[in-house]
From TrEMBL:
This is S-adenosyl-L-methionine-dependent methyltransferase. Residues 90-164 form the O-methyltransferase dimerisation domain. Residues 244-386 form the O-methyltransferase C-terminal domain. Pfam families: Dimerisation (PF08100), Methyltransf_2 (PF00891).
Amino acid sequence: MVQIISEDSGQISSLLGLIKEAATTLEAGYAKGPGGVPCLDDTAPHPLDRNISTPEMREATQVLEGACAQLCAVLARPNHTVLNNFFLTALQPSCLRIALEFNIPDILQHKPSGMHVAEISKICGVDASKLARILRLLTAKHCFREVEKDVFANNRLSVQLLTSNPLYSLGLHMTEDMTQAATKLAETLADAEWGPSVIPTHAAFNKFTSQPLAMFDFWAQTPAMHEHGERFGVAMIGWGTAVEAEAVVSAYHWHTLPPGATVCDLGGGVGALSMQLARAHPTLHIALQDLPERMVQAAQTVWPAACPEALAEGRVNFRAIDFFKEVPLAGCDVYYVGGLLKNILHAFQEAQCITILKGVRQAMKRGSRVLIHEYILQMAAAAASSSYSAQNKQLARAPAPLLSNYGAGRIRQYYLDVSLMVLINSKERTLEEYVALGEAAGLRFVRVWAFGDMSGVELCASEEGED
């Protein structure tokens, strides 16, 4: 055993300073807007909940979460932290699934002041004494509130689990498909053939389901599983909203593109991102490309209802595409590879990603840009975070003494990375890995962008000069 004595005797005061500064920034941000600072007991949406976070408030949230978690990890006994934060949290998905499966938040909406567990039990059919214990655990995590003994009510967090919220579908996916498949992760990694494999059907999901199809194919080709595929589509709407993926609409320099410039939304489904771009930047033209059935749905149903002005003005073009066999629409100004509802490249292995990007490179004109919108993994150690040091060519690093990657403040990307391993045997990537994929396809790295919780990697043709 090695004992390392920290040279930074002021670590605790530094973490406390970061916590105070971040909390003050968030409090001031709420105070400046309508509604003031929210109360945890509120069930009505706060006015700012519908807005994209300012960069200052987003950074403050990440610092606050990271610093609080790091402070507790430093000061609490290690066995206490391991027991509470790693071992016992394994029960959380199962308890949360009870709340989702039996629509507890919807039931509580009928009595905002609080409902006795006996009454909840009569409606949902779960034993009252056991349900109370499950709700009490969730209440201790600030999801629901216990007004008085055995009387529960919704709060600011639990109303996110209403069946009308897309996060409800995401919760069902995470607490069923994800949690159940993850129970086979150790067995999968120990398998001599499957452990080192990058084949999508060699995932923990396949170990759990005992069938040979990749997850999405299994859902599509098995009638009993169609509901899971439909649920996943709704879940991704909730995911995109929660991670503020639509920040790309305002954060990227779309406004510098000339009038009439074309953005090719490659793999954007029915065009959730494209519709926002079309509304926010009415001089842009949109080329939406995805599977044939998505293009029919987009052209005949979604856009006529949600963005008819773009159709009337001839600013959107729908073209079906097979990423691996066809080249995207030629001559577009920006090729956007990502999306609010589905990240493209993280679902595929390196060879497939290079095939997609080579097709894009073939379609580009001089001056075209490729914008990859994905999570970018950062390392916890500052020295290992990125080999790039120039401005706009590396991701932001957390202030010391936080982990360079913000630790718990940006934990979502690491959960997502492991979830891809569990479900489809894929992964999230580092900036260096995305740059390497681009270089293999004849593309050169230009810069990295911050898009809410996610990032953007901008590429150009490799023969173009430095900006």
